[in-house]
Amino acid sequence: MPLLSVEDLAISFGPSGVAAPVVDGVSFSVEPGEVLALVGESGSGKTLTGKSLMRLLPRAAKITRGRANFEYGGKKIDLLALSDRQMRRVRGSKVSMIFQEPMSALSPLHTVGSQVAEVLRTHGGAPEDENSVYDAVLSIFGEVGFPSPERAWSAYPFELSGGLRQRAVIAMAMVARPALIIADEPTTALDVTTQAMVLDLLNRLQRSHRMSVIMITHDLGVVANMADKVVVLRKGRVVESGPASEVLGAPGHGYTKALIEAAPKIPHNMTCHEVPGTDAILRVSALSKTYPGRRRTFKSDDPPVKAVADFNMVLERGKTVAVVGESGSGKSTVAKLVLRAERPDPGAVMQFCGGDGDTQDIAALKGNDLTKFRRAAQMVFQDPYAALSPRMSIQDILTEPMKIHDVGSRSERRDRAAYLMGRVGLSGDHLARFPFAFSGGQRQRIAIARALALQPELLVCDEPTSALDVSVQKEVLELLAELREEMGLSYLFISHDLAVVAKLADRVMVMRRGRVVEEGAADSVFNDPRHPYTQALIAASPEPDMEHQLDLRAVAAGAGEPNSWPEPFGYRGDAAPGLVEVAPGHKVRAMA
User: Which residue in 236, 238, 239, 240 sits closest to 12, CA to CA?
Assistant: First the structure.
């Protein structure tokens, strides 16, 4: 007997009978203790479907038909027909939700402990005395893997890493012991190693408490490692459903096949080889960045933070160097330093050789020389939603760099903006539109077009695909590859995912805690990783098939907590090459 049975669900925006449904005829069931994955691209209706079960839809959205029968107190109730007061008794206590972005789901003004305790008091039938509430919250903190539950109680969200914030959101969903959890893209913005730890945590909690889980995701690699059943949505309709092994092993619909094909994969036998050259567009040596520690009133000041230490790199003209690592590894700081968005520590040398043959030391540039360099080196930012001003039209966004650098007349700028739109696969007729009229993938294309407005020679791409669906991600990577060949661009590509850079990078540098722990030609790093952290990154990259399922427990153990890895080999005197155990029974060769 299913715990939840959704029948013919339809959701529309706007006046009834006028707007077309954005979710149309969705049906599925979830058994007790089962994991069901709702899969699809942005706009497919999967998140709306999940929020409708929690009755958390936007005001403009209306459920026009359907039922959601849920087993409650030995009888079936229709979640869609409950009054607001009745739904409050179910929400949190019987059905709970893990939201996509933990920083948005958590209040920045309250401690994590107080927020989890509030859920327990409101929905979980909390005990009368506060000591029992405190003990219950610390218990769930320990269960979701906080290394110090007492410290987590008094911590604010901004004091936690991305992985620990996600654990806090999971604790909020779990504290009242619900029968069903709806997890909305719980690992989208996380590093692959942190993602493996969160998936392992969800997997263990789900099995130990025999919870049912609805996993909302666009990542079929996550589905392969978590789901018992899969429902594939496209434009609000179910195009395929069934056991995960059947849907992923032998997909019957072309859309499912396209999603599987688009998923980034770690190459198992790369045959490309880096060709050494002498025409370097960028040479970096002794690059470091130290931030002062937080100043405290009644305690000693925190020690300085070494964000980047002794970074060295050579980027050949027309090539791509990928800098890979987890959040906090220093890779984005390297990008800011190279573009002089921040000043490096004294002693850094960053030589940029432009097409005119003139070599400049970026670290020493000032005034007009720095402005000239910034015409030749541009950046594509991580979040296409935050990178474009919502108050500017696309024409203003694309022409603004040309205005700042006094390039061309007004008509010439508009003509170039229209050309750039066409070059990135969009229509020049849409220049008058504003960013909200475009999807995430289209916005990233616009961001790339803006970076190309000044005809740069170097593009620094800071996680340009991390917020995108796998199919859109593939399109953007293919576009970047085409532009590199056509325009002779050089890329410094920042990413946390080795699978993303596999087809684009000529050279890979792996960073950990501010230092490069491994570097080499792409085929060398992928085929024969020498450092245990690189091995963990590769092992943690999920693939969209049942044959390459991750041992989540082993990967999580190998990845460790944020500060548990040893210092890079060659930096600490007691680190020696040899076999290193990154998980029980799993050893890899360390870098000499």
Answer: 236
Q: Would you say 128 and 180 are in contact if contact means Cβ atoms under 8 Å apart?
A: no
Q: Is 556 exposed, middle or buried (0-12, 13-18, 19+ CB in 10 A)?
A: buried
> CA nearest 172: which of 225, 220, 113, 228?
113
Return the SS3 of 121: helix
How does strand 507-512 pair with strand 515-521? antiparallel
Q: Tell the residue number behind the tokens 């409050």, with chain if given.
A: 88
Return the amino acid letter for 82: L
Instruction: Count how many Cα atoms sit within 13 Å of the Cα of residue 182 in the half-sphere of its side chain.
Output: 22
Tokens 């970096």 belong to which residue? 284
Question: HEC states along 333-389?
Answer: HHHHHHCCCCCCCCCCEEEEECCCCCEEEHHHCCHHHHHHHHHHEEEECCCHHHHCC
Q: For residue 164, how many other CB atoms are within 10 A of its CB?
A: 21
What's the predicted TM-score (pTM) here? 0.73
pLDDT in tens, 156-174: 888 886 678 888 888 898 8
Asked if residue 30 has pLDDT above 80, the reply is yes
DSSP type of residue 569: B
Distances (CA, A) of 420 to 414, 430, 552: 10, 12, 43
pLDDT tens, residue by residue, 509-565: 999 889 999 999 998 898 889 898 888 888 777 666 555 554 544 544 554 443 333
Structure tokens, 536? 């963990």
**Number of C-beta neighbours around residue 366 at 10 A:** 8
| Contact between 192 and 496 (Cβ < 8 Å) | yes
Sign of CA dihedral 469, 472, 478, 481: negative
Indicate the residue type of 28: F
Strand order in the sheet with 458-462: 377-380, 458-462, 490-495, 320-324, 507-512, 515-521
Q: Which residue has the higher pLDDT, 251 or 164?
A: 251
What are the backbone angles phi and psi of residue 516, rounded to the nearest 5°? -80, 120
pLDDT reading at 586 higher than 50 = no
Q: Name the strand (E) or helix (H) holding 201.
A: helix 192-208
Secondary structure of 471-517 in HEC code, one letter for each residue: HHHHHHHHHHHHHHHHHCCEEEEEECCHHHHCCCCCEEEEEECCEEE
Query: Which residue type is seen at 307?
Result: A
Identity of the amino acid at 440? G
The residue type found at 23 is V
Distance of CA 424 to the CA centre of its chain: 23
